[in-house]
Amino acid sequence: MPAFSRLASSESQLPRSSRLSDSASVTQLHQSHQSQPNELTPDQWQEKQLDKYLRTYPNGTTLSLSEYAEQLPRPFPFHCGIGQFEQCQIPPYAYESLRQSEDWWIVTSTINWNYYTNFLSMALKSSGKLAQSIVHHMLHDLVYEFNPETSLGVIKEMDLIRILLYPIEHGGNRDPTVSDATQIPDWLAAISPLASNAHSSMDLSQAQVAVNSAKNKRSLSSASGMPPTNVPLILYNSSQPVETNLRELNSQMQHLLAKSVENKVNSPISLDTGIYGAISGGRFVGPKIDTPRLTSNADDIMRLIGVSAILNHENAMVVIKKSSCSLYRNKMKSHGPDRLQFCASDSSLIEIVKVRENTVIKDIYNAHLIESKYGFKTQFLASEALRCDQAIRQAHPGHVPENSDDGPYDVCTFQLPICNLQDEYLQQLLQDGKSIVEVCREDVGLAI
């Protein structure tokens, strides 16, 4: 297998987003409103058996969050939700009474959860705004004779979800003592299950699994206008322009997030659908809670997914051929700028090509912009496609692992079929007159 260098150019060598010093933890944000009596930890949550306390709270199967606060020894108004910060606080007159009881932990964890979900909402809004600009320019750059009204489905719904969600650092509690028997990420626990008028209970974790584990994105198009069966989150209209769908998907996600938070606040506190489902296990006990935000390389992630989506729409694949690549270097220099090819370190020839029926087409419209404008060399694209392919083959069903090399991109931000023709048997088929497309389709097993 050829060895690929990791990155395209200095412009694309952006580190995986770290937790920046100006991105305060939820607890630090909370401290600006009121000092805390002690440092809360998930270990203390477990020691005090607060899951049991909240699950068996008197009348907990009927009390909403605000009703719960109103029946405390020192009642106070407590209204949480998207856009509500000041209303979701402990008033000074109730502070001393509350800090002496287990309810202190319930209330402060809920305040942390409220901050977290509000920052998640802001990150999603920022992602949508950035994606609109990037997708608009990519469509005009890379789609031949692009017309919003006729170039429908150039970027499929699953890729639009990736573009919106993948650049978001979800944050969460970095304390390893947080109890989570389900292994659901904090950001999912914070807002699941989602709900809308059409679907009374929609679990976003299903959508996350489907987004991360889709092996063949080409099969996920919704020509009928119905969402993929495993992704109840979105309502996608395949007859609408790509940019319209992107805007509406982002709007739906924000609406569903707000609705989910509202439902948790209004549902009985002891039920999974209520605040128990969000804060159980000490998920939102401080002080190590990071708020969601866009990654520092969010624009690169969006462009990488966009390039992958557009190439998939063109029925593209990565072809690896064993050859004396050095013999072709001068010939490759004479080719036009719109071919995506390079010689690997083992002298194999790697190309990204389009497939039309049984023919390979090497010229790709405005392919030179992929490197000159977006900063992604063909060598990097092939490396990412190969890494994604290997990760999917090795992963457990329904799970795609994170990078193991601390690189700047998550696995499967760039996904194309790979046809490795270096096997001697496959080389013999080519020598016997079988076309590259036929070998890749019939013998390698690609759905091209």
Short overview:
The chain has 448 residues and is α+β, with helices and mostly antiparallel strands.
Structure characterization notes:
The structure is a single chain. This protein has 448 residues and is α+β, with helices and mostly antiparallel strands. It has two domains: 269 residues, no CATH class; 146 residues, no CATH class. The chain has 17 helices and nine strands. Strands 5, 6, 7, 8 and 9 form a five-stranded mixed beta sheet that branches. The chain is elongated. This is DUF7872 domain-containing protein. InterPro entries: DUF7872. It comes from Puccinia coronata f. sp. avenae.
How are the SSEs ordered, and which strands pair?
Layout: H1 26-31, H2 42-47, H3 50-55, H4 65-70, H5 92-99, H6 103-142, H7 157-165, E1 168-169, E2 172-173, H8 186-191, H9 204-213, H10 242-266, H11 275-279, E3 289-290, E4 293-294, H12 298-313, E5 316-321, H13 329-334, E6 340-343, E7 349-356, E8 359-361, H14 368-372, H15 378-394, E9 418-420, H16 424-431, H17 436-443
Parallel strand pairs: 5-9
Antiparallel strand pairs: 1-4, 2-3, 5-7, 6-7, 7-8
Helix pairs in contact: 6-10, 6-12, 7-10, 7-12
